[in-house]
Amino acid sequence: MGESFPRILSFHLRFPDRERAHPIMVGAGLVDRCGTLLKEAGLGGTAALVSDTIVGTYYGERIQRSLEEAGFTVLPLLLPPGETTKTLNTAAELYRHLAQGGVGRDGVLIGLGGGVVLDLAGFVAATYMRGIAFVSIPTTLLAMVDAAIGGKTGVDLPEGKNLVGAFYPPHLLLIDPTALNTLPPAEWRNGMAEVVKAALIGDPGLWQQLVDNPARWATKPGEEALLTLLSRSIAVKIQIVEHDPLETRGEREWLNLGHTFGHAFERISGYQVPHGEAVAAGLVAAAVLSGRLGLLEESELPEQLERVLRGLGLPTRWRIWLAQRGVEATPEEVIAAMGTDKKRRGGRLRLVLIHRPGLVRTYSDVPYEPILQALEETAV
Ligand code: ADP
Ligand code: ZN
Q1: pLDDT digits over 279-308, tens only?
Q2: Which residues line ligand 1 (CB under 6 A)?
C-alpha cells in the first residue's frame, strides 16, 4: 500500500459527554515507543504501570524503559493473573499503592494486559482522586478487539461479574500486534470468538474472509493479515460505541450477540470455561434460533458459522463442550441461567439475533419454545 513499516493506524472514538476523543493507535512497535507517545498526548508526572505477573514479565521492563527515557517516574504494580484479581479489594490495594507512591492528580495510570487488568486498572484510574489520566495497552486479542475499546471499566462482586464500574475511555489506547507473539494459543482462539462476533455484527467482508479460510485464522497470521483483522474488528466496535456510547440507545447491546447464551454457559460452569469458548457456542445457538424464528436471510449461515468456529478450534455444540469440561446441563437449565428471575417468570427473553452478516437486531420478547428448540438442536 505504499506506506513504510511500521505502519500505524489511528482511530478516534468520540464520547459525547467529553470534549476529548479516545485515540486508538494500532501498530507494531508501539510498546517500545509508549513513553514518547504519552508525552505527545500531554501526559507527564508519575506513571503507575499496572499489569499482571505474566504480562509484566514479558513487557513490563520495555515499557518502563520507554517511559523513563521520556522523563516519567515509573511505579510498577504487579497483580496475580486471572479473573479472581478483578475485585474491589484489589482496587483498594492499588489506591493505597498509588497514594503511597505519590501519584497525584497530574499522574497517569497505565494498564498493561488482558481484559482483567484493563477493566480493573481503568476503574482505579476513573476513581482515584476522582479520575486521573488512563492509558490502556492491551496484550490479548480479546482485549485488543473488544474489552479495551469503548470505555467500560469495572470489577466483579461475589454476586456477579462487572457489577461495579464506570465509563472511562482511556486518554490513549495503544495496540501493538507484536505483543501477541507470546500469547498462548488458547487465548488467541478465545479472542477469535469476539472477532467472529464483530464480523457477524458489522463487517460482511471480514465474515467472508473467515468463511473462505477459517484455518488461516486459527493461529496468529502474518503481520499484514493480523493488522487487517485487528483494524476491521476494532472499526466495528468503534462504530457501534460511537452511536451508543453509554448503552442507552440500543446499538451497543448488539455487541452481546451470542453472549446471553454464552453467559449462561459460563454461569452454569461456575465460570470455569473460557469466555471466548462460551461465546462461540452461544453464537451457534443464537444463529440457529434466528433461523427458527424466520429471521435469517441466508439459511446456510448456522452451518457456515459452525465450520468457521470448528476451523478456529472453538466449540460449537454447547452440551458436548460443557461435558468435556466436566459440566452437565439441560437446555432448561441453560434458559434458567439466561435471564433474571423476572425475565424467567415471563418466559420471554431479550436476545440479539441475526438477519445476515452485517445486520443484527435486539428482540425483547423472544418466546420460550423456540429458544428451547434451538438449544436442543445445538446441544450435541
Ligand atoms: P482477557 O480477559 O483479555 O481474555 P486476561 O486478562 O484474563 O485476558 O488474560 C488471560 C491470560 O493471558 C492471563 O493469564 C494473562 O496473564 C495472559 N496474557 C495476557 N496477555 C499475554 C501476552 N501477550 N502474552 C502471554 N500471556 C498473556
Ligand atoms: Zn465477550
Answers
A1: 999 999 999 999 999 999 999 999 999 999
A2: 52, 54-55, 58, 81, 113-117, 139-140, 142-143, 147, 179-180, 182-183, 187, 190
Nearest CA to ligand 1 atom 13: 81
| Cα–Cα distances in angstroms (integers) from residue 350 to residues 184, 248, 347, 365, in the given order | 34, 15, 10, 6
Output the CA torsion sign for 7, 9, 10, 15: negative
CATH number for 9-182 (one of 3.40.50.410, 3.30.2290.10, 3.40.50.1970, 3.30.70.2860): it is 3.40.50.1970
Cβ-proximal residues to 252 (8 Å cutoff; 6+ apart), any chain? 150, 240, 241, 243, 244, 245, 246
| Protein fold of 186-377 | Dehydroquinate synthase-like, alpha domain (1.20.1090)
Q: Where are the domains of the chain?
A: 9-182, 186-377
Q: Which of 155, 81, 163, 146 is nearest to 125 (CA)?
A: 155
